[in-house]
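lol forgot to send this yesterday, sorry. struct tokens for the thing we talked abt
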């Protein structure tokens, strides 16, 4: 499980040094995905498979399903840390996520999100003000769907 947030700086080649306490969770291959809200999500292979299964099962006869598959899988890549615990992020990923040099790594239980620091802080200020209302809304929605 991943929780908390930490601030980091990408090196000149666009590499992120993953904190030592997180490296054990990414010893094997894992996946990076340009995700919702313009962040890069990092998933273990197992968690990525869970996320991909409902998308893989969509009909290829639906143009929306094909588009979603194209976006999801086209914006995913298999990754491996180098010997120094660094993750090389391709420039196209960094550009799509609007990430420059200063980043925030956020634990979101089953995965990590990598954000441009300014974008994250701007969103966080707004989200902090909405926290109680959002929690209430999600609680009400869960009661209706559960």
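and heres what i got for the seq, position by position
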């Amino acid at each position: 499980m991943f929780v908390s947030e930490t601030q980091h700086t990408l090196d000149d080649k666009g590499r992120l040094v993953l904190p030592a306490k997180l490296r054990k969770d990414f010893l094997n291959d894992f996946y990076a995905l340009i995700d919702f809200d313009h962040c890069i999500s990092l998933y273990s292979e197992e968690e990525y498979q869970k996320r991909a299964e409902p998308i893989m099962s969509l009909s290829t006869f639906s143009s929306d399903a094909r588009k979603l598959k194209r976006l999801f899988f086209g914006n995913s890549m298999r990754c491996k840390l180098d010997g120094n615990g660094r993750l090389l992020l391709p420039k196209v990923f960094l550009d799509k996520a609007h990430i420059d040099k200063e980043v925030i790594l956020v634990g979101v239980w089953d995965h990590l999100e990598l954000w441009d620091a300014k974008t994250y802080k701007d969103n966080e200020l707004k989200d902090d003000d909405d926290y109680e209302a959002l929690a209430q809304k999600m609680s009400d929605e869960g009661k209706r769907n559960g």
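Helices lie at 20-23, 45-56, 63-74, 91-96, 117-145. anyway ping me if u want another try
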